[in-house]
Design goal:
InterPro entries: DUF3501. This is DUF3501 family protein. A 5-stranded antiparallel β-sheet has the order 1-2-3-7-6. A 4-stranded antiparallel β-sheet has the order 5-4-8-9. The longest helix has 21 residues. It is built from 6 helices and 9 strands; from the N terminus they run H-E-E-H-H-E-H-E-E-E-E-H-E-E-H. The protein is an alpha+beta fold. About 25% of the residues are buried.
Length: about 200
């Protein structure tokens, strides 16, 4: 999928053009999303976004909802375009998955504040905690949402280390969900491409 630096109605494909493009490239986009997805513990998945993944998500929503009018297209762009990383940052969607509905209800009450306890840790540098849910409140005092949107702001030194091949750990230090994992090298190589120092 061709990227343009900024998603606008003028550089999205029409429904007809996207249908043809999708037949040839759907598998590639699924693979890209899998590459940029990191499982953290048993129930948490962090999907790191890029212009390509966000553009794909918008095109998919337009296709599924059969949206072709300007207002509808603008609404989808407004909803998803903020997930495109800018400068020295990563943006991600956090998903909490519990197959059993009762377990999900119970666990989401324990995990209030979990999104802001997710962090990335570049080798040799302090943790960077997520800035979560800037678009809207996604939890109450008694229950969190199963989906959160996050950004991680890296400084220049961290960015240089990542682009030089330093390891990065993804973790969560919420009391009820302690977990961490080293981000795999192929995933990290893709994420390094998002960092664009001014």
């Amino acid at each position: 999928m061709q990227t343009h630096g900024r998603i606008t109605p003028d550089n999205l494909m029409s429904l007809e053009a996207y249908a043809k493009w999708r037949q040839a490239h759907h598998g590639e986009m699924v693979a890209l999303r899998q590459l940029r997805s990191v499982t953290l513990g048993e129930h948490m998945r962090v999907q790191f976004e890029s212009e390509a993944t966000v553009r794909y998500q918008i095109q998919e929503m337009l296709r599924i909802e059969k949206i072709f009018e300007e207002d509808g297209i603008a609404h989808e762009i407004a909803a998803y375009a903020p997930l495109v990383p800018q400068g020295c940052q990563w943006r991600a969607t956090l998903m909490l998955a519990y197959p059993d509905a009762q377990q999900r209800q119970r666990e989401l009450t324990k995990l209030v504040g979990v999104a802001s306890r997710v962090f990335v840790e570049v080798e040799g540098h302090p943790r960077v905690y997520a800035i979560a849910d800037e678009d809207q409140v996604r939890e109450t005092a008694t229950k969190t949402s199963a989906v959160h949107f996050m950004r991680f702001d890296l400084d220049a030194a961290m960015t240089a280390f990542v682009q030089a091949g330093a390891g990065v750990r993804l973790g969560c230090d919420h009391t009820h969900y302690p977990a961490h994992v080293d981000i795999a090298a192929p995933t990290l190589a893709s994420l390094a491409g998002d960092l664009n120092p001014a």
